Amino acid sequence: MRILVTGGAGYIGSHTCIELIEAGHEIIVADNFSNSSPESLKRVSELTGKIFPVIELDFRNRNEIEALFKQFDIQGVIHFAALKAVGESVTHSLLYYQNNLISLLNLLDVMDDYQVRNIVFSSSATVYGAEGTSPLKETDQTGAVNPYGSTKLMAERIIKDLATSSERWRAVILRYFNPVGAHESGRIGEDPNGIPNNLMPYISQVATGKRAVLSVFGSDYPTRDGTGIRDYIHVTDLATGHVKALDYMLKNKGAHAFNLGTGKGFSVLEMVAAFEKASGRKVPYRFTDRRAGDIAVCYADPTKAEKELGWKTVKTIDDMCRDTWRWQRHNPDGYQQPAEVHKTER
Ligand code: NAD
Ligand code: WQD
């Protein structure tokens, strides 16, 4: 299929581009590079040997999307483009609603006009809110605990309502748990701006010496070692989930949600130990207060994805740590300068 990958320069998008190309799909990437560098796409081309169109645009601008659909014969869309920092969503909630929801509404509207009614949407385990009991199932109650989570929950609702309104829509909603790791080449990976919000990039920057010490948020959770438990999933496994989702979408009408996780939980201290083993470096840490809004335990029941998508994870925690370390060690400052790349002329 000819797939528009929105936000394809970002962390999960760039890894998914590789798996899509390897599975024989054609891709067109559109991104405003607000949280990414075109360098990631240059490296996707290097790794796959394929040049593909890269369009700089902002999905908040409907006219720009319309021009894109005029220019390319798009058959389906994977919609990654969104802002994702939970803390920032609390301090800049309007920005999050505008960026994540106006973009989605514009995109769906243009897709409808151009009769491209196939979408895979990036959702998040955050839609299970704070009350759920792990393992979390797709049928469990949902709820949002911050504006970022609200944008995902509202987006799911918009997509489901659209699929209910017309049989012509096909949508797969993927609820990611905690994506970590990097491509095994060490050429692409996660490149957060400034101080990382998430555990894995923080640990890896402590291991390289870029940051002095990891703050472990809370030591008194009701878990086996008192620290929070999460379902970490290798970004390459996550990427292959999107290829399966496209196959599923072609065979199934309506909107369908799937958890993408391993089904296993690891604590913060277990992640530190696994990273120390993979890197051979010490990761000094100290316990601090709990982070506001955090929950003790969150992991997936991935049975539905296994049964219906025919997908399951293959990478281990050791793979996740090894690949993160390879990426971090070879690219201590991430992608650094944005490269001049083959941005397609409009
Ligand atoms: P990312 O920030 O690396 O990638 C998102 C990309 O979208 C970036 O390249 C950014 O420049 C682009 N973008 C943002 N707003 C845009 C706009 N208005 N117009 C055009 N481009 C825009 O994030 P990621 O980790 O790759 O996440 C991808 C998707 O997965 C997001 O929707 C995110 O909410 C979701 N998700 C991420 C995680 C995670 O922990 N990484 C977990 C669950 C869900
Ligand atoms: C993991 C564990 C922390 C950093 C977030 C979003 C979620 C989804 C994935 C997008 C927790 C602990 C962390 C640190 C720590 N994103 N921790 N010290 O919070 O599970 O999920 O990313 O959809 O919506 O909320 O991930 O990596 O921030 O935290 O001790 O410096 O590590 O308390 O137990 P989280 P995380």
Automatic annotation (TrEMBL):
GO cellular component: cytosol
Composition bias, Basic and acidic residues: 340-346
Chain positions covered by the region annotation Disordered: 329-346
Molecular function in Gene Ontology: UDP-glucose 4-epimerase activity
Record-annotated NAD(P)-binding domain positions: 4-324
UniProt KW keywords: Carbohydrate metabolism, Isomerase, NAD
GO terms of biological process kind: galactose metabolic process
Cofactor(s) demanded: NAD(+)
Catalytic reaction equation(s): UDP-alpha-D-glucose = UDP-alpha-D-galactose
EC number: 5.1.3.2
Database matches in InterPro entries: NAD(P)-bd_dom, NAD(P)-bd_dom_sf, UDP_G4E
Pathway named in the protein's UniProt entry: Carbohydrate metabolism; galactose metabolism
Family statement drawn from the similarity comment of this UniProt entry: Belongs to the NAD(P)-dependent epimerase/dehydratase family.
Subunit structure: Homodimer.
Full protein name: UDP-glucose 4-epimerase
Natural source organism: Jeotgalibacillus malaysiensis
Taxonomic lineage: Bacteria, Bacillati, Bacillota, Bacilli, Bacillales
